[in-house]
């Protein structure tokens, strides 16, 4: 079995950074602040032209629940466009062959699409919610609320550490910038624009960053064929074939890179699938984005975004790892004449070395940009998620039940700043104890998975009782940690950073953590079923005020009720989401890869060519979905903003009096509506 830490060379060896430290600071600090100031300007522009006031809690946290399908799909792609998605998929491609990037992609798309089921169910049952934890509190009250708060915060912290460790290592390798400096400076710009713009700023920066990243990735998919050493898919195939004959991959069929029959590959697939279900379902930012989408945009947004996302780790991971494996023995490769060291691989440097190989300093600049944009975009979602927990689930729930807009916004701002600092500090601590991208990529599921099924049951199953909601995830986490550490000791004879980051203990621990809560929850619930009435969710008023649809132009603004589907429509969307979830899981995880694993097939040149070309075409399709579809879908609001801007009229002021006269109801928890 190939291990994640298989030694290849002296780990003290390192390439000379192709860019200066100044370049690193310019991107991380200057560009970060420019983007942040740009988002501040856009936020103020939207307030003046279409009345989007981020001093109102509903706008700051949920964008008035009015985000359209295109921007939702783009935000979904962005939510998973972590720096680790690109760095990690290339990493597992280098270690496990072609199976690695495929399993990386297959471990993401099914649960993103499945989230449409949860999203539309929440929209139907509790349309005024802001966070997952509000749902848990209403159904199970305080003890379960605290348990799930702990689970969600653990998820957010581990996710941020994973992002920052990978991004900081890549930026350091490209520029020589100190890892800790990058770790602390990356969240600065993110905290600034999230502080001012809230969730809408997150959506807009998600869109901008995702578009730039996809343009660069598509550039790589073309640039790779222009260098003389590659030239064509057929030549790349021959290079990879020759390289794997020199350095066969233990655990792969015939030691080949060119096969889906990879033991470590399928183990990683299982691990990644479970871990990502935890990352999606226990990530409050996914719920916030679902609550922020208009009711008719949730299902199509998550389905389109989830399927489009599949191409990113599959295409770039396959192409980058193929080039690195094929050209590692060529003088143009950065580490020549040696192979990449295990430290370099585990730090996620396969993709940066690929970019340098095909595009020199230009490639290094591209990697610097996409790493920065990926990590800041996803950090924004994590920061707004933790901010919402601090403001809604801690402050508003336990300290000030009648909190006003101003109070909640203030604590949201405190949450933004606090978590940005804490995430950087926690990542620094992990760095100094010897943890890197590889370790967090493999083990994070042990901590993120225990809440998966208790959360799903909370939203979809009436009978789960309070005791099950409290006990099942805690027992699941204890079971997963025990299996993880016990497996590391049983297989490798010690419990250390090295052994606990290897694939086998992480797979066993993650599976135990994910699935053990099922029997725990069912058995405990069946002793005393709750039989919860979904209508009880509507008894508590959570929204701060009525919500207007601000996505349309002034001429065709809809009333809030006109945009809300009927119960029949909600159920139809629920069925569509369920069918697509099943189809995506079966297609991406069962019917496509498993027969190829069982067949022990080594790719021919023609099959490899088709495999890679389809992945690249899919990647370009993702650019259309995430980059151009939001512009098409949101053209009315864009034209409305431009019209107001060029006419010099302040639409917000003009419409303010009419809106104030028609909607002057502030919903205050405990007091009911008041004039």
From TrEMBL:
- Predominant subcellular localization, coarse grouping: membrane
> Which is one Pfam family of this protein?
SSF
Molecular function as annotated in GO: spermidine transmembrane transporter activity; urea transmembrane transporter activity
Which topology term describes how it sits in the membrane? Multi-pass membrane protein
InterPro entries annotated for this entry?
DUR (IPR031155), Na/Glc_symporter_sf (IPR038377), Na/solute_symporter (IPR001734)
The region called Disordered is annotated at: 653-675
Signal sequence annotation:
none
PANTHER family attached to this UniProt entry: ACTIVE TRANSPORTER, PUTATIVE (AFU_ORTHOLOGUE AFUA_1G17570)-RELATED, PTHR46154
Q: What is this protein called?
A: Urea active transporter
Q: Which organism is it from?
A: Aulographum hederae CBS 113979
């Amino acid at each position: 079995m190939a291990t994640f830490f298989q030694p290849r060379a002296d780990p003290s060896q390192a390439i000379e950074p192709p860019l200066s430290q100044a370049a690193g600071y310019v991107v991380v600090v200057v560009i970060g602040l420019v983007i942040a100031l740009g988002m501040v300007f856009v936020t103020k522009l939207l307030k003046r032209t279409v009345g989007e006031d981020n001093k109102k809690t509903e706008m700051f946290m949920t964008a008035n629940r009015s985000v359209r399908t295109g921007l939702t799909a783009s935000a979904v792609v962005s939510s998973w466009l972590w720096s680790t998605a690109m760095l990690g998929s290339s990493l597992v491609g280098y270690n496990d062959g072609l199976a690695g990037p495929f399993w990386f992609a297959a471990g993401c798309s099914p649960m993103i699409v499945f989230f449409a089921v949860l999203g539309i169910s929440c929209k139907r049952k509790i349309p005024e919610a802001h966070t997952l934890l509000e749902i848990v509190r209403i159904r199970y009250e305080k003890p379960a609320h605290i348990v799930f708060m702990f689970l969600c915060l653990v998820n957010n912290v581990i996710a941020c550490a994973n992002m920052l460790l990978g991004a900081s290592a890549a930026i350091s390798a490209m520029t020589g910038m100190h890892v800790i400096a990058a770790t602390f400076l990356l969240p600065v710009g993110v905290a600034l624009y999230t502080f001012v713009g809230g969730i809408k700023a997150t959506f807009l920066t998600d869109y901008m960053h995702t578009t730039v990243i996809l343009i660069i990735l598509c550039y790589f998919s073309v640039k790779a064929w222009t260098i003389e050493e590659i030239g064509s898919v057929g030549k790349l195939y021959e290079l990879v074939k020759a390289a794997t004959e020199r350095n066969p991959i233990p655990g792969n069929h015939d030691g080949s890179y060119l096969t889906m029959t990879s033991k470590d590959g399928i183990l990683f697939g299982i691990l990644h699938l479970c871990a990502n279900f935890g990352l999606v379902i226990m990530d409050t930012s996914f719920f916030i984005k679902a609550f922020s989408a208009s009711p008719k945009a949730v299902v199509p947004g998550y389905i389109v975004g989830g399927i489009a996302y599949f191409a990113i780790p599959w295409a770039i991971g396959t192409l980058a790892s193929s080039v690195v494996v094929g050209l590692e023995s060529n003088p143009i490769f950065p580490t020549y004449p040696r192979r990449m060291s295990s430290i370099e691989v585990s730090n996620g440097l396969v993709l940066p070395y690929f970019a340098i190989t095909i595009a020199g300093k230009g490639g290094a600049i591209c990697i610097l940009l996409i790493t920065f944009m990926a990590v800041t975009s996803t950090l924004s979602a994590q920061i707004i998620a933790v901010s919402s927990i601090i403001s809604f689930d801690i402050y508003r729930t336990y300290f000030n039940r009648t909190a006003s807009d101003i109070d909640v916004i203030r604590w949201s701002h405190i949450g933004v700043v606090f978590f940005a600092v804490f995430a950087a500090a926690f990542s620094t601590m992990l760095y100094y104890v010897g943890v890197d991208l590889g370790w967090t990529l493999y083990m994070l599921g042990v901590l993120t998975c225990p809440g998966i099924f208790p959360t799903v049951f909370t939203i979809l199953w009436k009978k789960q009782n309070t005791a099950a909601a409290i006990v099942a995830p805690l027992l699941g986490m204890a079971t997963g940690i025990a299996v993880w550490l016990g497996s590391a000791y049983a297989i490798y004879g010690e419990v250390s950073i090295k052994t606990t980051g290897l694939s086998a203990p992480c797979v066993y621990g993650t599976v135990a953590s994910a699935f053990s809560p099922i029997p725990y929850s069912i058995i405990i619930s069946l002793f005393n079923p709750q039989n919860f009435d979904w209508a009880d969710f509507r008894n508590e008023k959570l929204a701060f005020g009525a919500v207007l649809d601000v996505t349309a132009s002034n001429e065709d603004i809809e009333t809030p009720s006109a945009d809300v589907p009927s119960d029949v429509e909600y159920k139809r969307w629920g069925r569509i989401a369920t069918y697509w979830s099943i189809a995506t899981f079966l297609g991406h995880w069962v019917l496509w890869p498993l027969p190829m694993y069982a067949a022990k097939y080594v790719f021919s040149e023609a099959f490899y060519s088709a495999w890679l070309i389809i992945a690249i075409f899919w990647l370009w399709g993702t650019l259309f979905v995430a980059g151009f579809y939001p512009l098409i879908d949101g053209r009315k609001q864009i034209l409305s903003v431009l019209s107001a801007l060029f006419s010099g009229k302040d639409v917000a002021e003009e419409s303010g009096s009419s809106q104030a006269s028609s909607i002057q109801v502030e919903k205050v928890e405990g007091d009911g509506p008041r004039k």
